[in-house]
Amino acid sequence: MKKIWYKTTLFEYDGPQIFEARDRIGGHYLGVAVLPKDQKDQFLVVGAEPEKMRKFRNGEIDLRSLIIVSSIDEWYLTESNTDESSFEIKLQSGSLQEHDFLPDDGFFLDDYSTSDNIVSEAQQRNNLILEIVVKPPESKIGHRIRVSTLGGILQNFQSLIDHSYRTLCQETGKSKKNIRTDRIQMDVVIPAAAGSFRVLLESSASLNLFDSHTDLASALQKIDDLFANSTNSQKNLIEVFGNHSQLMKSYLMLLRLLKKSHTGFDYSWAEPNYVEPKGCGLSFSQVNYFLERLKNEKIICDSEVEFIGEFERVNRNAKKWGLLTDHGVVTGVVGKDGPKLDGLEVGRRYKFFCKEERGEFGVETTKNILTRYKPLNPRQIPHDVTKSE
User: Fold this and answer.
1) At what angle do helices 284-296 and 245-261 cross, to 10 degrees?
2) What distance in Å separates the CA atoms of residue 221 and residue 278, rounded to the nearest whole number?
3) Domains of the chain
4) Which distant-in-sequence residues (6+ apart) come within 8 Å of 71 by Cβ?
5) Helices in the chain by DSSP H: which ranges?
6) Does residue 383 have a pLDDT over 50?
7) Exposed, middle or buried, 100 (CB in 10 Å: 0-12/13-18/19+)?
8) With 7 labelled, which of 38, 251, 337, 384 sits at a CA distance of 20 to 30 A?
9) Cis bond upstream, residue 375 (ω within 30)
10) CA 156 → CA 160, 200, 255, distances in Å?
């Protein structure tokens, strides 16, 4: 007979269903609820390596696989619990797979849980607070994360907020002069909060008596819906993204980074007047699931985009063009009913109005189709050139 001590509950439904435990010398154990014995709760217990437990918590392996690989040498059943914090376990004979204790395939742990202190943090700071939690492999040896991983996640999530906000502005018909991107920026305020690897961010804009973070909160709410819907197999991807290709692109970039970094992604956020935090997340298995869906679903996403820059290159026969913007050269083609390129002057500044067409999900095939253009200073033309003459 052996004794183990309860450490934490990993999954609960009307009582603990999956829990972690330790023995006297610090060995790691996993307990899983099975059918009761003599009207008392009974658990299957296996010794589990810390790295395999990390993969299970991160959604990289399912429960059945973890138990099978961990029970090759030994497996146990609980005999009794002397108190709420300890169990006596008895070594069993034979192969575990010969018995009916194994769970079904496909149970992945959803390790996302909102942080209890986010609401109080938002109240103390009188500001919108966002917490991000990731679990890359390097975090298992301490509170650490690769610089490239942390920088990429922060940059990609801020980009996701920006495109979520712009999508909302398009959907609500907000005029461009009323779009305030300065109101949706986030600052890192606590880069080393306790946890696997947690980052605390605060809205760059402060609240006052006559203001609120409606824009930022609305953008985050849309991101909550995006995370929740992207793993819903009942919804196709056009229902998830609509025709908002930039929103899809920024979300896809974040997921690809997560896959490369071998981690899931959880976040929670709150404003000072919230009672409970909001948020969502994806396990590593869900990240892979969504990216696999991209290979099987084909969809065309179109959106209107504008570019300002110097007309740099032209192929009038092929109707191809290039525009030198502040962010580099943008290339594209002329649409079927688009303007002729004969009147454009190389080196002159223009505003190009384009339809951005993206090909299959998961494939970087973006085409900028020119629908009209407007010459800018030094020689201002008062009207748009909208189509071929």
Assistant:
1) 130
2) 8
3) 2-98 (no CATH), 118-296 (no CATH), 301-375 (2.40.50.320)
4) 46, 96
5) 50-57, 63-70, 118-125, 147-172, 214-230, 237-241, 245-261, 284-296
6) no
7) exposed
8) 38
9) no
10) 6, 16, 9
Question: Do 85 and 5 meet the contact criterion of CB atoms below 8 Å apart?
Answer: yes
Place of tokens 């709420």: 84
Place of tokens 């742990």: 109
| Spatial separation of the C-alpha atoms in residues 330 and 309, rounded to whole Å | 9
pTM: 0.55
What distances in angstroms separate CA 75 from CA 44, 78, 307, one per listed residue? 8, 10, 64
Q: What is the pLDDT of the chain when averaged over all its residues? A: 79
* Mean pLDDT on 32-61: 84
Q: Which amino acid is at 286?
A: Q
Q: What is the strand order of the sheet 186-193 is part of?
A: 186-193, 198-203, 129-134, 265-270, 278-282
Which residue carries 């995006």 as its tokens? 226
Is residue 76 within 8 A of residue 46, CB to CB? The reply is: yes
Sign of the torsion formed by the C-alpha atoms of 129, 133, 139 and 142:
positive
- Please state, as a whole number, how many other Cβ atoms lie within 10 Å of the Cβ of residue 82: 9
Residue 2: phi and psi, rounded to 5, are -130, 155
CA distances from 227 to 153, 222, 233, 280 (A): 15, 9, 13, 7
Alpha carbon dihedral 156, 159, 163, 166, in 10-degree steps, equals: 170
Burial of 211 (0-12, 13-18, 19+ CB in 10 A): exposed
Token couple for 368: 């900028």
Q: What is the token pair recorded at 296?
A: 């099987």
